Amino acid sequence: MFDSKKNFDVWKVVSALILALYGLFLIYPLFKLLYNAFFSNGQFTLEQFAKFFSQTYYIKSIFNSIKVSFLATLLTLAIGIPLAYFYQMFEIKGQAALQVIIILCSMSAPFIGAYSWIMLLGRSGVVTQLIEAILPVKVPSIYGFNGILLVLALQLFPLVFLYVSGALKNIDNSLLEASENMGCSGVSRFFKLVIPLCMPTIIAATLMVFMRAFADFGTPLLIGEGYQTFPVVIYNSYFAETGGDHNFGAAISVIAIIITAIIFLIQRYINNQFRFTMNAMHSIERKQIHGLQAVLINFYCWFVVLLAFMPQVYVMYTSFLKTSGKIFLPGYSLDSYRFAFTHLKNAIPNTFLIGGLALIIVIILAILIAYLVVRRNNAANRVIDTLSMIPYIIPGSVVGIALVMAFNKKPLVLAGTAIIMIVALVIRRIPYTIRSSTATLQQIPMSIEEAAISLGSSKLKAFFTITVPMMANGILSGAIMSWVTIITELSTAIILYNLKTITLTLATYTYVSRGNYGIAAAYATILTAATVISLLLYMKLTGNKEISF
Amino acid sequence: MSVNIKIRDAVKKYGDNTIISDLSLDIKEGEFFTLLGPSGCGKTTLLRMIAGFNSIEGGDFYFGDTRINDMDPAKRNIGMVFQNYAIFPNMTVEKNVAFGLKNRKLPKDEIASKTDQFLKLMKIDEYRDRMPERLSGGQQQRVALARALAITPDVLLMDEPLSNLDAKLRVEMRTVIKQIQNEVGITTVYVTHDQEEAMAVSDRIAVMNDGEIQQIGTPKVLYQRPANLFVATFIGHTNVIDAKLKEKGGKAYLVLPGDYEVEVDTIRKEEIYDRNVKASIRPEELVVDANNKEGITAYIDDAVFLGLNTHYFVHFENGETAEIIQESKIDSIIEKGSKIKLGVKTEKINIFDETGSCNLVEGVVNDYDIYKKEA
User: Fold this and answer.
1) Which of A132, A441, A546, B21 has the fewest CB atoms within 10 Å distance of its CB?
2) A9-30+320-549, which class in CATH?
3) Rounded distance between C-alpha atoms, residue A386 and residue A206, angstroms
4) Residue A12: CB partners within 8 Å, gap ≥ 6?
């Protein structure tokens, strides 16, 4: 197995190259961020941190973020876990459609939900006006804390659903039967057996949801009004600074990284308390339900899912309305689309060019990294594994700020180019594909590759002609998630983009913030259409309805 | 608290597909009863109907005098061992065993003492704090059995419990299972496709094929006097040889390949007339004639020496092949290509009608016959 000098191992080169890439595009920017946080004009200073901690405005934003993220996470668990349980245990009307809608909900850009809810429940929202016209009540304000909570909970519970569904599928039916056999069924079994069995997944989902809620910046920006959250503060203070070094932005970013790292470590610690493996020989069979139970369960599932899907549908609907400037007029027209296609013409091709290139790089790198991590488990490759997961937990705006700081000056000026957008998208979105590829590769026995090698194939050829095709479905299940999050990416891109590199998501955001809801809706609808088509294509291509997170 | 199980006219359907039609069965109190058959014969389906995990489309199931058709699986008081053990991966060995007891809301000290008792009985008390993934297959099997027995069930159901173990462990564990069952004295229904395993553990066996019971009997009866050709070939190994039955002066003669005729005095009187038959002759029921004079002419194709026995693979003059088992002798093995004569142990062999559905030999006991007459 040891490679002598003449038996040169190409994987060592690959390993070194990937390390170099991460060094340049992740370590160096993060180092630069750290440097700028502590050094101003070459002088060590804690001035920025003193500024942060001396103003209640900043500290309050952290507490606001934690509070709203924590409650949103609890809500998503309360909605998502029962939904997943019902979905896997019982026959529900329109099961397949329900799942597709849930996946679509999980994939839409969060701020689209926020602005749609404003149109529905805002001050002059359709539902608000309807209720206030009929009933003598005042609809509670959607702006601020309540609104963020509502949007985040409805936006993120599909993630909990998808996570927990996956775990439930791994529970062997005979475990449930064994429990029933010993006198434990129904609700008691749900709490005593099913929840504990899903615990590792629930914890993972909790972290994922919390991180997303904590880092989400589009939602509070649109609907938060006076309720300041941390990501918005990062963004605002970054753009408020005129200097090239952005010292205060850097300092806040460092604080953000520390907070997320703490949360991550807590999750790691809790997760270590629940370590066991599951492997389902026979997965759970869905049971027929009747009577009142059937009505209630079906109602619950469809109600929460449609509620989460409503904003998207409403956005699509408004994209076909007649508009005059910022106001919707009675009647329908395609004017919004006409405008969308003639202004910001770059947005559509950019989305697919920049996104497409990023996706290709993501897939190639993810396959290589999966191979290194699974088949060549050595120190260097474990470092790559860890590095590749860092951007998964750092807030997007922080990644953006770090990249700008690193590449807005010589020797390497990338700021404002498509390259920096691609780099950001790749490092932010590659973890999905790496995870799914790694998981698949772990299940493919080495002996298959060895068989190919013993039949005269070279190591590289054996990997690419035998193993990679076997991994295909696994790679794609992560790649679809990478792709959809690439095209809906906002928090990093908003710091890096300019008019030349604007994408659909950014265009949507631009018009939402200008109040041109009709045009924004047109962009958002094109984006949703792209998501739906990608998803359908993926399902058709792989015959798979699973998506990897 | 062991009970007898009574099943009458059971029917199982998946949609329009009938898996089991009209099956009846009695399992005695304290009996070790095995459902044996090839995969897809309906044995697991029947077991799961007893357990309550499969719906019952027709017929009645009783534990003692209690009809259990509509009883919740949780209330049937059944201990079940699953094919993959179904050990809760998130609980220690001890918690697994205590799980059923806790659900009965027993007092704490009783739970502790019972858990202890069964951990010791299954010789796993040293692993009580281990997580299941750190147990070997045999240990997991013991946990599964301890967990099933701890709740003092009325009936113990086992669904191919040994199929995930390696050959040696399988033999070891089946002895353990048999011993424990004897000790506890609980009515046990055991499902397997391994006939040797079934013979080793069972008091009685029901051989199933295509959703129907072919024969119920003790291992000895099934092996020596199978009710039909399916049972003869499924239990143990046998040579099925096309032959003729001839009646001469009230006596029955079997005409084997090469027109070798032997008298058989085991055929039932009413079955003796000239007819085509299928003779089921087990490898040990064929004897190489030492003088090489009398018997079926055969040629040795191959010889396999296995220590105690030597197996010979031969073909007859008509091209049919057969296997013979002889106790190994100290002198040399008969060489390949040799021409030999084969005699037959007539009192042991079984002779079936041409369709193979009926054994013509006296002494066939099939406990399932009573249900056929009922119907």
Assistant:
1) A132
2) mainly alpha
3) 21
4) A3
Q: Are B215 and B41 in contact (CB under 8 A)?
A: no
CB contact under 8 A, B133 and A199: no
CATH dotted code for A46-312: 1.10.3720.10
Cβ–Cβ of B78/A274 closer than 8 Å?
A: no
Residue B134, chain A, CB below 8 Å: the answer is no
Q: pLDDT, tens digit, for every residue of B287-324? A: 988 888 888 999 999 999 998 999 999 999 989 999 99
Beta-bridge partners for B157: B80, B189
Domains in chain B: boundaries: 5-229, 230-374
Q: Which residues on adjacent β-strands are paired with residue B358?
A: none
Choose the closest CB to B82 out of A178, A199, A275: A178
B265 with B252: CB under 8 angstroms?
yes
Whether residues B151 and A175 touch (CB distance < 8 A) is answered with no
> What fold, for B5-229?
Rossmann fold (3.40.50)
Tell me if chain B has a CB within 8 Å of the CB of A271: no
CA A370 to chain centre: 20
Nearest by CB: A276 against B76, B80, B90: B90
DSSP H helical segments within A241-378, as ranges? 247-272, 291-319, 335-342, 347-375
Considering chain A, tell me which residue range(s) the CATH 1.10.3720.10 domain(s) occupy. 9-30+320-549, 46-312
Distance from CA of A170 to the nearest CA of B (A): 12
Secondary structure (3-state) at A197: helix
* Nearest-angstrom CA–CA distance, A263 and B195: 57
Candidates 3.40.50.300, 1.10.10.10, 2.40.50.140, 2.60.40.10; CATH matching B230-374: 2.40.50.140
Give the integer Cα–Cα distance in Å for B280 and B232.
7
User: Residue B72 and residue B22: Cα distance in Å, rounded?
Assistant: 23
Q: Is B105 on the interface with A (CB under 8 A)?
A: no
Strand B187-192 and strand B155-159: the pairing is: parallel
Contact residues, chain B, for A274 at CB < 8 Å: 90
Beta carbon pairs, A and B, within 8 Å:
73
Q: Which of B78, B83, B89 sits opposite A278 (nearest CB)?
A: B89
Report the residue of B81, B88, B93, B114 to disrupt the A interface, i.e. the one with the largest count of A CBs within 10 Å.
B88
Q: Which amino acid is at A189?
A: R
Residue B306's SS3 state is coil
Residues of chain A with Cβ-Cβ distance to B91 below 8 Å are: 196
Mean pLDDT by 10 residues, chain A (549 residues): 54 92 94 89 84 87 92 96 94 88 84 85 82 81 88 92 89 88 87 90 89 87 86 84 74 90 85 75 83 93 93 90 80 85 84 94 95 89 90 86 87 84 93 90 82 75 84 89 88 85 88 85 90 87 68
Residue A294 phi, psi dihedral angles, 5° rounding:
-60, -45
What residue of A is the nearest CA neighbor of B130?
A: A276
Complex-level ipTM beyond the 0.85 threshold = no
Which one, of B194, B209, B361, lies nearest residue B280 by Cα? B361
Please give the residue of chain A at the shortest CA–CA distance from B88.
Answer: A175
Asked whether this chain's domains B5-229 and B230-374 adopt the same fold, the reply is no
